[in-house]
Task: structure prediction
Amino acid sequence: MQSEPNRKWKTRMEVLVVSTKLGLTSFGGPIAHLGYFHNEYIRKRKWLDERSYAELVALCQFLPGPASSQVGIGIGVIRAGILGGFLAWIGFTLPSVIALVLFALLLKGYDISHAGWIHGLKIVAVAIVAQAIVGMGQKLTPDKNRVTMAIIAAAVSLLWQSAFTQVLLIAAAGAFGLGMYRKTTTVMDAPNLPIQVSRAFAFFCLMLYFGLLIALPLLGQVTGSEWVSFIDRFYRPGSLVFGGGHVVLPLLERELVTAGWVSKEDFLAGYGAAQAVPGPLFTFASYLGAMAKGASGAIVATIAIFLPAFLLVIGALPFWNSLRASSYIQGALIGINAAVVGILLAALYNPLWTTAIIRPEDFALASILFTMLVYWKVQPWAVVISGAAGGILLSMI
Result:
């Protein structure tokens, strides 16, 4: 029988290995990442049940920062404590950090945005998200009221595209669910999440989040330190952005290009490279840090832009179990879960479908990849390779 320390380290190493596999294969942006996470963590390994996963997604949608990275950190914390959350982040993030720093050193100014294999990876993302919607929709929208809520959420997401739309939709769906389902939740109890973080430490993390947000710009002005200013230019966008990686781009451009840290040409080249690598788009900061200050700049920029995500997730999770145990909160979560399905459905159309499915050949490839995932049960990494190869073939037609 394994000792408790050995069991804990085995669990942590499992988190690192699985998250690294996801970091090497999760193409397509934050919404696609949630599909990859769902397939690996929920469908295959059953680390969380469907409802708990959807609620974790909803919680991270409420928080500013990179939502998919926060979901991964949250799963790591639930599985193996704070160190598990750190290892989940390392595994998911490091591959794209390395790739983008290499782009900064070796592929400066090289335009790969129209390469056939990149287009194939966009089509892979369509198949991945479609699979997630089918799986989550069957469990989280089983009646006409919740299906209707999901469709309304999808329609509003598409017609009113704002950084705060998702937050408002989740809040409205929660209020609707509170009114309709709070009296029917006694037979729908979700398993208690094993959060291995004390409330005192969680409160400290929340205070540190706000403290750094206020102190860094003031400290930069008082000390005149170039490095403090550099950290602040990445910490603030990571702290204040709702909606994921693409939304942070204009803020980073303002902080770095306008200030003269990175040229506009290098910024755009790095953005093209960021579309070609797996993992979170926030690792674009690694590229920008490398361009501005070399390897040390890449490390500092990466830590600075992701630190708010850590502080917020660790600060929120310990309070989540007690909140979700309330019949009122559970009623709200039923509505929120339906809205999450709708938000995913909207993202399947825009930006994924509109940028990937341009002609009939693209739809044919997406259908094949979807069939491979859902019916043939092909491993996601093999589907990624097949999609990239298919994209190359399509570019020759």
Summary: Residues 10-397 form one domain. The chain has one domain: 10-397. Residues 123 and 235 are 32 Å apart (CA to CA). The chain has a mean pLDDT of 86.
